[in-house]
Specification:
The protein is mainly alpha-helical. The chain is built from 6 helices and 5 strands. The strands form 2 sheets. The protein has a 3-stranded mixed beta sheet, with helices on one face. A two-stranded antiparallel ribbon has the order 1-2. A hairpin with a 2-residue loop joins strand 1 and strand 2. The chain is elongated and about 90 Å long.
Amino acid sequence: MFLIAAKMELGGQRSRKFPFGFERVNGLGFFAAAVALTAVGVLLLYNAATALIAAEHATVGSMVVLDHDLWIGWLMIAAQLYSLVPPMLIGRRELPLAEKLNDKLLHTDALMNKANWLTGAAGLAGILGLGLGWWWADSVAAALISVDVISDGVKALRSSTAELIDGSPRALSSPRLSGEALELEKRLCSEFPSATIRLRETGRLIRAEVHGIHPPSEARHPRHYWPGPQDRAWRLAQVSFIPPIPD
């Protein structure tokens, strides 16, 4: 979803049907990724719960290697450890990029990689549990991890839904209001104290509407109103002024 959204954002041309281009496709991809993350958590919880209810007693056998009995669990542990490495490394590399770009879709993909390696860790715990005779270890570990995955998914769903219905900009990693948006609102309120300020997020960008006043006589670029470091001012794409209704 991230690759598709990035391709459409960069290559999408404005047209009569899409006069604003495809800058909001990132938000749509964020919603799809949030649904996928939540679904992974729910599926993991379902599988763990059904295994516990059915009291499945899985067994791990052995094989003969060079005239010696080798417990297959050791090979399974090696495979699980190997499978943990890629999602862990990729997720850690994605997080700083997501913060720099304020890309919630990329951040959700990092959470999906987190879910992948946590699921692998649950499998590792399950194999060790089976070796100790604890048939329930795998399912209990998976159930505990699924709660964390579902929590991340629900937070992403709340943020992505708010963006799609023009809610106030949300933080990168939670459904709380964005700190940058709150600072921007404070900045606009201080300059236009009698106005009503409305902010919304379109993908990575913030658009502001100042209601109830006429625009200032001096033309200003939207970045003039950005309250934080100028290397983040690209986020403010538009400041619109809606004058009061005449008597």
